[in-house]
Amino acid sequence: MSRHYLAANAVFRMAMRALDIEVRPEGLENIPTSGPVILASTHVSYPDFVFVQHAASGSDRKLRFMSRYDVWNNSLAASFMDGMRHIPVDRDAPAAALLRARQMLDEGEALAIFPEAGISYSFTVRPLMRGVAALARATGATVVPTAIWGSQRIYTVGNPEPPFDYRRGRKVDVVFGTPIQATPDSDPTEWTRQLGHTLTDMLEELQQRPQHRPRPGELATWYPAHLGGHAPTREQAFDLDVWPTSAVMPTWGPDPEVYRS
Questions:
Q1: At what angle do helices 3-18 and 48-56 cross, to 10 degrees?
Q2: Is residue 202 domain-resident?
């Protein structure tokens, strides 16, 4: 493991201990122990990459994240991101990032991708990019659908955006689902739609667990409206969420017709 990975992991573990954050992984056996793999994860908070990496550490795979290119604007962050072999992504011109990702998968690496390319204000699965499908078709990489929930209580989007919540004792669940494949003749759009349905099922199962539900009478802006919370509905979030025009519009989740208006 590179010194950058060791240093970053040490800092993240120290921060999680200080805040008493418990990351609870499920389905580690679904992550192949070798060969190219893509973890395609839902995205509900800014520090999700920390929790997904921590949850996956029990599999002994070192994840290479595809991340927003502006993280590299900070020279110190850029040094660590490069040292950990993460990949900067310009959503408006993603070709270079996809080429680099394909090269890494051909080397047998494990990638982690947030195919929503952002966090939904409604805490539902937003429009998805086709990159996971394209990479899986081209390289034969196994895709592990991944869902995370609980991290949105710590630091996420909002209107207005809430501050970082330093309260101790948060629980973050990360579920690694049944592996799936894309064949060379898979239709990228239809395959991505199926991924959207799978991620939605996994996310909603997590959201409806008793430990993640709001207390009776609680103002739960961190919980989806269609499940009884007070986050924006999908219709309300439509004007807040921003996604690339090339994204696949949802046929999954509540009120998908919002995206066809």
A1: 110
A2: yes
